[in-house]
Specification:
The structure holds two protein chains of two kinds.
Chain A: E1 2-10, E2 15-21, E3 33-37, E4 44-48, E5 57-63, H1 69-76, E6 82-89, E7 98-103, H2 108-113, E8 118-121, E9 134-137, H3 140-149, E10 157-163, H4 164-176, E11 184-189
Parallel strand pairs in A: 7-8, 7-10, 8-9, 10-11
Antiparallel strand pairs in A: 1-2, 1-6, 2-5, 3-4, 3-6
Chain B: E1 16-20, H1 30-34, E2 39-44, E3 47-52, H2 60-69, E4 75-79, E5 84-87
Antiparallel strand pairs in B: 1-4, 2-3, 4-5
């Protein structure tokens, strides 16, 4: 599938939003992602859709910190250009309200879901940009301390989206707080 | 013939063979999303990792796309006719 690039906008020091015109007939559920062709030899990178399904465009959120293949490709795009992707992919969709934990660009699916109660972990203050219903944590210690203070957390649905290490370590922490594993929803990426 | 998940028409025999490198897999599940009849996530040593359920579950093109979608290049694709590895390059 192909889509036209509408714009590329820098949201903070390392975070960029790529806005695409939504192809006719393309439908997705909030929380899904696409696999973008980032090199002619076939390399692909996955990006979560950060815009709600009701909008006429597709926003993708990219953290360009690593300046790898995907980041370089996105930064090289110009409005009017065309990208090639497959999707929508993934089953990380909101089944009920709860607590939404994001590491870095893991906030993208929650932006699409228009989630309430987002706890966003970032490495640097310069990476922050405004997102509704969001509290930002710059250290893991502050986040885990905050989670411990929530009395209702063990009865809630908890959504976790971020890097593999972020999801793995917070899953262990949440289970130690008594979260029902069947109420824990996770999505990992590199 | 293009095989899609849920279809009754499964390819008889495919040319590409896939292999999951467990040490590289992070359980991102893009392979299972792209080629759902070939890959699934399974619990291995307390980790959710990709495993192959059927080498001939999807057509070759879908299996290659699934491998190319893997963010850690944890899936290798071999062309059994030419006897070469075609992914990762």
């Amino acid at each position: 599938m192909q889509a036209k690039v509408v714009s590329l906008k820098q949201l903070s020091e390392h975070y960029w939003r790529m806005r695409l015109a939504k192809p006719v007939g393309f439908n997705f559920k909030a929380g899904q992602y696409i696999s973008l062709l980032v090199h002619p030899d076939g390399h692909r990178r996955t990006y979560s859709i950060s815009s709600p399904p009701s909008t006429p465009y597709l926003d993708l959120l990219a953290d360009v910190t690593p300046l790898g293949l995907g980041s370089r490709y996105i930064l090289s795009l110009n409005s009017g250009g065309t990208i090639n992707f497959i999707g929508p992919l993934g089953k990380f969709v909101k089944t009920s309200d709860g607590l939404f934990l994001a590491g870095g660009s893991g906030i993208a699916p929650y932006m699409s879901m228009q989630a309430s109660s987002i706890l966003w972990s970032l490495r640097r203050k310069s990476d922050a940009f405004p997102v509704k219903n969001t509290q930002i944590f710059y250290t893991r210690q502050r986040l885990t301390g905050y989670l411990k203070s929530l009395t209702q957390v063990s009865n809630s649905h908890v959504y976790l989206c971020g890097s593999s290490s972020y999801v793995t370590s917070l899953t262990k922490h949440l289970l130690s707080l008594g979260i029902d594993p069947t109420r824990l929803h996770t999505e990992k990426f590199v | 013939m293009k095989y899609t998940p849920g279809s009754e028409k499964k390819p008889k025999k495919t040319r590409y063979q896939v292999k999951v490198i467990a040490g590289k897999c992070i359980g991102a599940a893009s392979c299972a999303a792209v080629a759902a009849m070939t890959f699934r996530l399974s619990n291995l040593n307390d980790k959710q990792l990709a495993e192959i359920i059927d080498q001939d579950g999807n057509v070759d093109e879908e299996k290659l796309l699934a491998a190319q979608s893997c963010p850690t290049s944890a899936i290798e694709v071999y062309d059994t006719k030419k006897n070469i590895k075609i992914w990762p390059k």
